Description:
Helices cover 71% and strands 6% of the residues. With 171 residues, it is mainly α. It has a domain at 1-55. Strands 1-2 form a two-stranded antiparallel sheet. The two termini are 32 Å apart. The mean pLDDT is 90.
Amino acid sequence: MNSSDRNRSTHAIATAERAHLRATGSGLGDITIYVMMRACNAMMNERLNRLLEPHALNMGAYITMMSLYSRPENLANPSELCNSTGETRGNMTRICDEIVERGWMRRVPNPEDRRRVDLSLTDEGMDLLKTVSAQLHRNAADFYKKTFTKAEKATLQQLLAQFSTSLADDT
């Protein structure tokens, strides 16, 4: 986290604290965790986009391509990709148009339903994912190594898994 990100995170917490104090007469309390996680999420998204930028990728395209790459036979329709990425149908159309235009994905007629079009990664798209994924893996390993001890990283993973499960159960 650079000083600008640190200042932005500190500013977000201070702003939320002032607003909550004004609205309720008390401090943020546990809401601080939400504000901090939101700030960390924004910074992690920006970090990932910076790492993807040299490859002419953004996070939405990368996650869509990875979702498609994980599918059996490298095939999925846009609705399936929406479900696996959390993107809206409109945004998925834009993302897929961009990936197809760059030659990393192609539209394939569905043999069972001629009204439906499936998507498949091209060889160039699969090669790009292999290169980018290896770089992201090394970068993440370096980042976490300098940020946490092995025990802290394991604890963070365990806590985030617990948090994620609890959020999923609560919805």
